[in-house]
Amino acid sequence: MGGIDKEQDICKYTDNMAEQVHTETRTTTHTQVEQRQSMLSNVLAIIGFIILIVIVLWGLFHIASLSQPWLSSLFKKAAPALTVTIPSNAISGDSITVSWKYSTPEKGMYAFLYQCKNNFRFETTGNASAIPCGAAYAIQTTSNTVGVTPTLSGTASTSVPVSVIFIPSATSSKQAQGTATVVVHPKVVTMTPVEPAPVTPAKPVTPTPVNRGPADLSVSIISVTSDGSGNAVATFDIGNVGGNASGSYYFTAQLPMNGGYTYTSPVQYSLAPGDHIVNTLRFAQAVSGNVSVVVDPQNMVSESSESNNYTSQFLNTPYNYNQPYYPNQYPYVY
Fold first, then answer.
1. Residues 232, 321: one domain?
2. How far apart are CA 249 and CA 240, in angstroms?
3. Which residue ranges of the chain lie beneath pLDDT 50?
């Protein structure tokens, strides 16, 4: 019995050892497999990470190559700008100065340009030459300034954009342009009130003493003329320079005609003191000689002076004696 128990113990021990060995073998085998799988995962992760880095680097390089012009323009120095300075307000007819700033090593010229507006134009200062609107007007200056005169014929203010353009000599270079705006107002004419001149009181008119003396008829020749055909005109004045009415009168005129002629007027109306009447005698076949007029008052008791009742004047006529004589051409008076 004792031997059987020992064998059983040996068998149990043997079985326990076998199980332990088998367990250790399974444990060891399982651990190695897990280590291999973990290593493979790490390798794959590393490879994937490397591939991802390569993709990211390639993408960044491609993006950098595409954005190179933009980046270069971002960091590229900006071209200098052309700035224009002009008064914000101007009065029509008053000269203003347009100035500008622009720095460039290129050779070229400047031009002046403004927008077309109704009833408006710019003129050059000095010679008042009109500058056409909407067209580049070459500026002959080296001081980057130009004088212009706005001219507005309307009654409302107008806003005018003004530009200065740099035109390079090289056709491959770009132009530069600057713009400013000026508001042009119509010229207001200020009327200065004129003070009225002081009124000097009029001096009282002293009445002319009335001549209460007798009437006095006076006669004077104004003119005597003749043409080449022997037609003559005698003009004379008869007036009353006395203090009373003259009463009716008549006058006689000696006319230088072929054979002589005496003209006797019909009765003339009375002349009041200071009255005058101008008489004209026209006659043909005139020759050189004296024209005389005598005034003869009628029914006049007395006259203050009779020395002025007679007058005469010489008539010099280029009469053509080859002209026929017409006896019926008598003088007439009006």
1. yes
2. 11
3. 1-2, 11, 18, 21, 23, 25, 75, 322-328, 332-334
Element (H, E) at 48: helix 2-66
Structure tokens at 172: 């491959």
pLDDT of residue 237: 95
Strand partners, 280: 235
In a domain, 200, yes or no: no
Task: Give the chain's largest Cα–Cα span.
Answer: 226
The H or E element containing residue 75 is helix 68-75
**Is 212 within the bounds of a domain?**
no
Burial (Cβ within 10 Å: 0-12, 13-18, ≥19) of residue 131: middle
For residue 324, the enclosing domain spans: 217-333
Report pLDDT for 202: 67
pTM above the 0.90 mark? no
The 10 Å CB-count burial string (b at 16+, else e) for 74-92 is eeeeeeeebebebeeebeb
Q: What's the number of domains the chain is made of?
A: 3
Q: 162 with 179: CB under 8 angstroms?
A: yes
Q: What is the CATH number of the domain that holds 117?
A: 2.60.40.2410
Cα–Cα distance for residue pair 285/304, rounded to 1 Å: 38
Supply the pLDDT for residue 233.
Answer: 92
- The answer to whether residues 181 and 95 belong to one domain is yes
Mark whether 40 and 91 lie in a shared domain: no
